[in-house]
Specification:
Two copies of one chain form a homodimer.
Chain A: H1 14-23, E1 27-29, E2 41-43, H2 45-64, E3 69-70, E4 76-78, H3 79-85, H4 87-90, E5 92-97, E6 104-106, H5 107-125, H6 153-164, H7 171-180, E7 196-199, E8 203-205, E9 213-216, H8 221-226, H9 228-234, E10 241-250, E11 265-275, H10 286-289, E12 293-297, H11 299-303, E13 310-313, H12 314-319, H13 326-341, E14 349-353, E15 365-373, E16 376-387, H14 389-398, E17 404-421, H15 423-430, H16 434-442, H17 446-459, E18 461-465, E19 473-477, E20 481-495, E21 498-505, H18 506-517, E22 518-521, E23 530-533, E24 544-548, H19 555-568, E25 573-575, H20 582-592, E26 596-600, H21 602-607, E27 609-614, E28 620-624, H22 625-636, H23 642-648, E29 651-652, H24 654-661
Parallel strand pairs in A: 3-10, 12-14, 24-25, 24-26
Antiparallel strand pairs in A: 1-2, 4-9, 5-6, 5-7, 8-9, 10-11, 11-21, 12-13, 14-15, 15-16, 16-21, 17-20, 18-19, 22-23, 26-27, 27-28, 28-29
Helix pairs in contact in A: 5-6, 15-16, 20-24
């Protein structure tokens, strides 16, 4: 695997970056003064602002742009809902217990870690070079130190085959592997217990009885499905439409690692787009995106053991059936545009198709938008076709009609076998069995009706099984029943919509975005490298740093007024009137990703001019305050670039000297 | 109690309003197709948009305006945190069980309901008029039907006294009342079990061991306190400062009622303002608000059994010590301004001071902003001085320094007794006891030091108890120790900040705001009254309804482009191109609180002019699309009123006819 580089071509220094993120309080382990809890994090002010900007942009890009129906549903959810959805039975990982120290181990991670270590030991014994594997952070495991020991060639092959399909084993199979290869907990040498399923939902009880079990939702989707009938009504029966929801979800991971990428509490933004399954799932706005080029890694490529991506327009991909349908393709394109808009490095974004064996229990096709980071390729957005699975199971369980009744502008004429029971004669003939016999006849399907129609014609009667009556069957004569092949005109049809679900892990996007934005500025004096986070202005946690040259008291009211003006324009700013040098103050804000700096100096007091500094280039322009604020506004709302502004306003160089000296 | 009226002076029809809110999907019981769960609600599109507007305005009004440090902390919280904060032991209600049907009853609600019913029965027996009591929704109980039966005068007085202080009884006292007055569950006639505490936090376990107990937070505050040291560091050690957090909190109510006002899952927005306890808790921006008049109901008035409010400037209230300090007063004023900004009817807002017995275990002074609704006066914002309680207990438990080290510009000189131990002689003299004796000396407080200094002077030695050594005490001579009264200069001081906490229940504000905004428009034809929600434009879930006059296909691209332009301006709109009459379409949107309607008709196709309708007055103006959109923008951002716009643009009357006819 090639070494990952920053946007400026530097080798990615994750440790340095993470230390900077902690120092600047982007995020911090939750409850740290109590020793912390794995997989729970708090966002500090810059992380929280970045998250709010991601959400605000998401709302504009998806909800407002497409008139989606945003809802905010309950996180605490009663047992029955997740029993029906399948989560109670299937949303689990396999777990072994170490009988010696009581440690809980994820079975697949254990097998993977031990076999990989053995293969590494084998390579070392053979004198081969050991390369760092591309690590999947979703299952990042403790590094097991490898014992240098050569293995049989056949065993090496077996191990490799096991590792290639590690996601496909169930608990029994994992237990079998553990026994077969004598896999033990590396920490203790103990043989682990057989794997048992551990459900990943946090459990709780609702109300005081202690009997009403509930869960914290692991996704926001179910709340949207349960409200489908009301949402359709709200949308005045118009199809297709989408609902959307932004909120926290929870997964009680067995042993979370990899920082913000695998956590127990996380913010999601999910869209459920409801579409008629007939007619090829077309999307009216598909033409707007069909020429957009996406980077795809399809399932066939992966099945052949490759990870080669290709660039292809989404129009072509749908045409070639690489992507199943227009609606799925439309949302993939919209996801691409969103990631671009929030500042992802698009050379580090790809769409990977799920292989059949890795799809969730409800999905019928799925593409993940993955972002490349130092942890490998990270699934940040799932885009799944959940088919009619959820609406169907909830309707079946509750009887609520989670369907669409479509009035047909052109009525459909169908040829059907139709039964006509002569009720007057039927009752007296069958007496107390009458009801059950009639029900059995009405439950017949088309082929059965066709057969009995022939029986009536040929023999004047047919014999039908009726389990509930004494005789077990009944013979029905043509005096009692007619079965005819008729034209039936339908003026409406009923269907259960299919669901296309783009599902965004906001925390994963946030972390990946930080990696995509991070680089360091070497200092000429050979000082330590200084971090920079090159967020687009609209994403920057703070847009403007207001920097009075010194603590001179003439500067303070100017700074305060400028902050007020910027707030009126909807632009966040902070004043740094600390005694630190201007260079130090800018450095700190480069690490915070603050997009611009405005310096107030003695010239400002005289003529109202200020200096505007751009974070990435550190170049500066100088003009009247009003022109500078206007320039900032146009760069924040995206109507101008820094290059445009540099072209329009006079360059300023004096202070840069001071910054270098800092 | 006077009948509550709408903003237009109509009698408040809650049932009618709530039916409208459900029909328009402002909110809906969560999991309704599964039978629902008490106290859990979902917000539909208009409720969700209203909530988002309340939050966005909150962020601008508080976080941005005051440079607060917003954080987003974990909801799932380990046991130890809430053990320390006092919630595990004290955050409970008293509950009885009915042994017959297993029903759980809130003990105070049970006593209250039964005694009130008996008093009502007594009144009826005496032939007195029975008035509906002002109901506190926080403890809204099942109505118990009254048996008509005269009581002894003395008993009536006893009951009344019990009811007046129902909030003050603990479990034992409530159990005593239940026994004494033979209070039974009205539903079954059974004698309930003695009250036991039921903790209101939802419990869960974190991770797979089953041993790590946790809770869903009942407030966002603790996460902010635990991060205090990091936030102070982020704020570059500057005091005072505030953190803020917006997020869900949870309370596992025993039997939630009263719609959105008492729920188990709710959105909070909380500020923790950290302030030096010395110097009278001044606030630098207090002068900006000191002339603002608030409506106050102080504790003395309440203690005298009155509910008479008075209007007073916050400056005067702080001066008179009605409100304890400037910082508390500053935030009360800011809360007032926020409620005004989001559209509360300020004649239905008051600040009520907590009485000593109703304050939370951590608070030392507290004022609630209450909003009047058909459920009574509702606590919507708490504004408490939590003193140094939380930071102190967490520091004590964890040892983390949750303090401020203030560098003193003017050093403090203190006269102190200072011990000087001559280590060279001390060790050899006391041998193995030396360490413990020295520790005992160093632990002495000022009065003890003064006494021993005198002993040294008078007798040449002092005798000190040292529990850990064989002799139990030690005699220390003046050759070993000097104790002198000296001047000590301190260049810094350490203190634990006090916390002023404005805490907003967003759901309660949302509901109260809906009641304050609701009224009905009588129709001239005697039709059913049509609901209107008069939100300020900035709060309206949708700002603009775009209404093509008919389904004519020339209108559709104009409507689409107009929606696009409005989105670019950051203004939410929806197109209603259904076949319904214009009047019907406007009516529906009056119920949704949509602020404006823009009609596209044949004249639009010809000359680009459109009609703009204002929701509350139903009056219309007509002008070029660009001028109309500009007018809408200025009304949404608050720079112009409808009156201003009416003064500038030509009036339009033709279509109003059609609306009346609808």
């Amino acid at each position: 695997m090639a070494t990952l580089t920053t946007r400026t071509g530097q080798t990615m220094d994750r440790q340095g970056m993470e230390s900077m993120l902690r120092r600047r309080m982007f995020y911090t382990p939750a409850f740290e003064i109590y020793g912390g809890v794995a997989g729970l994090y708090d966002y500090g002010p810059p992380g929280c602002a970045l998250q709010a900007n991601l959400i605000e942009t998401w709302r504009k890009h998806f909800v407002l742009e497409e008139d989606m129906l945003e809802v905010d549903c309950s996180v605490v959810t009663p047992h029955d809902v997740f029993k029906t959805s399948g989560h109670v039975d299937k949303f689990a990982d396999w777990m072994c217990k170490d009988p010696k120290n009581g440690e809980n181990l994820r079975a697949d991670h254990l097998v993977e870690a031990v076999l990989e270590a053995r293969l590494e030991g084998d390579k070392k014994a053979r004198g081969e070079e050991v390369q760092d594997k591309e690590v999947d952070p979703k299952k990042k495991k403790k590094k097991v130190s490898a014992e240098v020991k050569k293995l049989d060639d056949a065993l090496v092959k077996e191990y490799e085959e096991v590792l290639a399909q590690i996601d496909n084993y169930d608990g029994d199979a994992l237990g079998g592997l553990i026994k077969k290869y004598d896999i033990r907990n590396p920490a203790t040498g103990a043989e682990p217990s057989p794997p048992r399923p551990f459900n990943l939902m946090f459990q709780t009880t609702i109300g005081p009885s202690g009997k009403d079990h509930g869960y914290l939702r692991p996704e926001t989707a179910q709340g949207q499905f349960l409200n489908f009938a009301k949402l359709l009504e709200f949308n005045m029966q118009n199809m297709p439409f989408a609902s959307a929801s932004i909120g926290k979800s929870y997964r009680n991971e067995i042993s979370p690692r990899a920082g913000l990428l695998r956590v127990r509490e996380f913010l999601m933004a999910e869209i459920e787009h409801f579409v008629d399954p007939e007619g090829g799932k077309k999307h009216p706005r598909f033409p707007e995106v069909e020429n957009l080029e996406l980077t795809l890694l399809d399932k066939h490529t992966q099945l052949s053991g490759q990870t080669t991506t290709r660039k292809i327009t989404i129009g072509q991909a749908v045409k070639d059936k690489v992507v199943d349908n227009e609606t799925l393709g439309y949302f993939m394109a919209r996801i691409h545009l969103y990631l671009e808009r929030v500042g992802a490095d698009m050379s580090k974004v790809r769409f990977r198709q799920h292989m059949a064996n890795e799809m969730a229990h409800y999905a019928c096709d799925c593409w993940d938008a993955e972002m490349q980071t130092s942890y490998g390729w990270i699934e940040c957005v799932g885009c799944a076709d959940r088919s009619a699975y959820d609406l169907t199971v909830h309707q079946k369980k509750t009887g609520a009609p989670l369907i669409v009744r479509q009035v047909l502008t052109t009525p459909i004429v169908e040829q059907l076998w139709v039964v006509d029971i002569d009720r007057k004669k039927f009752g007296p003939h069958f007496k107390k069995d009458g009801k059950l016999v009639a029900e059995a006849i009405e439950a017949l399907d088309e082929p059965q009706l066709a057969k009995f129609a022939k029986d009536l014609e040929d023999q004047g009667s047919f014999t039908i099984d009726v389990p509930g009556i004494a005789a077990g069957n009944a013979t029905v004569g043509k005096d009692l029943v007619k079965i005819e092949y008729k034209s039936i005109t339908k003026h409406s049809r009923e269907y259960t919509p299919n669901v296309i679900e783009p599902s965004f892990g906001i925390g994963r996007i946030l972390y990946s975005l930080i990696e995509h934005s991070f680089w360091t500025r070497g200092t000429e004096g050979g000082d330590e490298a200084r971090g920079v986070l090159s967020f687009p202005p609209a994403m920057a946690p703070t847009k403007v740093l207001i920097v009075p040259l010194s603590k001179n008291e003439e500067f303070s009211p100017i700074a305060r007024k400028m902050g007020h003006k910027l707030r009126q324009m909807g632009i966040s700013s902070r004043v740094d009137d600390s005694g630190a040098s201007i260079g130090k103050r800018y450095s700190r804000n480069d690490e915070l990703g603050t997009a611009f700096g405005i310096t107030i100096d003695f010239q400002t007091v005289k003529d109202g001019s200020v200096t505007l500094r751009e974070r990435d280039s550190t170049r500066q322009v100088r003009a009247d305050e009003s022109r500078i604020l206007e320039a900032v506004q146009s760069m924040v709302n995206g109507s101008k670039s820094w290059k445009d502004v540099e072209g329009e306003l006079p360059k300023f160089e004096t202070q840069e000297l001071e910054i270098r000296e800092a």
